[in-house]
Specification:
2 domains; 5 helices; alpha+beta; 17 strands; Diaminopimelate Epimerase, Chain A, domain 1; 17-stranded mixed beta sheet; about 350 residues
Amino acid sequence: MRLTFHGLSRRLAVGTGGGAAVEFLQEPSIVRQVQRVQVVDSHTAGEPTRVVVEGGPDLGTGSLAERRERLDRDHRSFCSGVVREPRGSDVLVGALLCDPYDPSCEAGVIFFNNVGSLGMCGHGAIGVMATLRHLQRITMGKMRLDTPVGMVTAASLDDDRFAVDNVESFRHAAGVTVEVAGHGPVSGDVAWGGNWFFLTESSPCPLELANVEQLQQFARAVRCALASAGVTGEDGAEIDHIELFGPPRSGGDARNFVLCPGGVYDRSPCGTGTSAKLACLVAEGKLRVDATWRQEGILGSIFEARCSVVSDAVRGRPVIRPTIVGDAYLIAESTLRFDEADPFCWGLPAEQP
């Protein structure tokens, strides 16, 4: 069953009846337009997701990749208004539900954060599943989601637990070394897991919450060093996620710290980052495809992950299909109001990433 979503913002004129998103000031001749957007908030292993279920922009037709480009080009203010302060925060990830382009999919989704759209989002896909089940648009079992970087399959496992079969993932480059200002040479791998990652075991301090500021500064410096050295993903793609690894502290196989594109850190173990990690482990022969990897995040929350090998002959590297399992909990349902008389209607500026 294909789900239908209403992406066109309802901004009706006075006197049309219906759910008119228009308010009067004191004088009836002065009309102030207010756009209303329905959202459902959840968190997955501590990382929040805000799903736009009604009132989003009309992105037209075409593939999800084409509609993602339109969202970035024409509707940046909408995205920042949804996820940035004063309605949100820089850590919040938005998910815009839309009709799928792939006829095999039941729904489409485009993820975005405080600085732009994302190719995929593992924790966000789990949050989308929790939201759709809450809205009674799905029941237990599997469904297919169309995303800008390909189709993913997601499943409800029990009340709060979900699994996502992510997009095909792979290690692009191994043993890449860059000179990081103030830290010297840092080595790691470049991998795709739905977004582009640089993964390294280098860190200036233990991966603990008490060290978040220092970890963020280091990861930002690594990202700058990669850009300065011209290190990219395939076809010159920017590496916008930095993933640090260290020993586990809460029963996982390893702990990570992930710096996201907007300059904030992922509270969850990061679904696409875990996918990239699995691709590197398989490429190194350090993980059996039938084994479960328990990825621990900076909060100590855990994603369970496993993978199958799709191909081991593409450009001489294995390509895997990762499965990420995690818990999501609903935390709010609300109506966001966008009043153009509000000087911060479309959000506060993002902090420098």
